[in-house]
Amino acid sequence: RPYKRAVWIDCGIHAREWIGPAFCQWFVKEALQTYQSDPAMRRMLNQLYFYIMPVFNVDGYHFSWTNDRFWRKTRSKNSQFRCHGVDANRNWKVKWCDEGASFHPCDDTYCGPFPESEPEVKAVAHFLRKRRKQIKAYLSFHAYAQMLLYPYSYKYATIPNFSCVESAAYNAVNALQSAYGIRYRYGPASSTLYVSSGSSMDWAYKSGIPYAFAFELRDTGHFGFLLPETLIKPTCTETMLAVKNITMHLLKKCH
């Protein structure tokens, strides 16, 4: 079809959360390998486009492998401070640098000198803005808290399409639990996790993407240390069930 709805998936906006990029890679592998054998996968891929960014914060991710395992931010330079980087999940133009973000360049939650100051954020925001009528779901993968979060992050308030999003989250969490019995909490990010401003999820929702979710994947060792295949597999397997569930929800009439 000339116009298909789309799903955006990104992983690794925070450098040290290695299980995120591992999941993005897993998703692509599963999509390719099970397209023929899995009717649900075939229906998803036939009826929707998927845009997948396996590593959002490439420089930070590389730095977490080579220099500092617990690095979180980007690696941009600051002219006045020796500290590097910006929290790429506080750099979006939605209540930028309000509660839950810091103006200090050395802090882990530094919001940056201005919204979309980071080339990574600017590029993704530009891509999503151009396609916001087409993209119906925004899924961002983090670690580690066993949660499925939806807007708002920056305030305690109920989103207009709450019932649709809430039912999608509820069903996704149940699908995830069916694999290994792991129970995820779900709900608005502000009350379920904490208040934070300038997040990609809130920005995506405010830009008109009706389903915006942030997964906090269960960890497989502290921040996914080294991620041996035996530990990656359970997390990715159960998360895949949740993502497929949300995707199938999109094909129904609840927006």
UniProtKB/TrEMBL annotation:
<keyword id="KW-0482">Metalloprotease</keyword>
<dbReference type="GO" id="GO:0005615">
    <property type="term" value="C:extracellular space"/>
</dbReference>
<feature type="active site" description="Proton donor/acceptor">
    <location>
        <position position="216"/>
    </location>
</feature>
<keyword id="KW-0121">Carboxypeptidase</keyword>
<dbReference type="GO" id="GO:0004181">
    <property type="term" value="F:metallocarboxypeptidase activity"/>
</dbReference>
<keyword id="KW-0645">Protease</keyword>
<keyword id="KW-0378">Hydrolase</keyword>
<feature type="domain" description="Peptidase M14">
    <location>
        <begin position="1"/>
        <end position="250"/>
    </location>
</feature>
<keyword id="KW-0479">Metal-binding</keyword>
<dbReference type="GO" id="GO:0008270">
    <property type="term" value="F:zinc ion binding"/>
</dbReference>
<dbReference type="Pfam" id="PF00246">
    <property type="entry name" value="Peptidase_M14"/>
</dbReference>
<dbReference type="InterPro" id="IPR000834">
    <property type="entry name" value="Peptidase_M14"/>
</dbReference>
<dbReference type="InterPro" id="IPR057247">
    <property type="entry name" value="CARBOXYPEPT_ZN_2"/>
</dbReference>
<protein>
    <submittedName>
        <fullName>Carboxypeptidase A6</fullName>
    </submittedName>
</protein>
<comment type="similarity">
    <text>Belongs to the peptidase M14 family.</text>
</comment>
<keyword id="KW-0862">Zinc</keyword>
<dbReference type="GO" id="GO:0006508">
    <property type="term" value="P:proteolysis"/>
</dbReference>
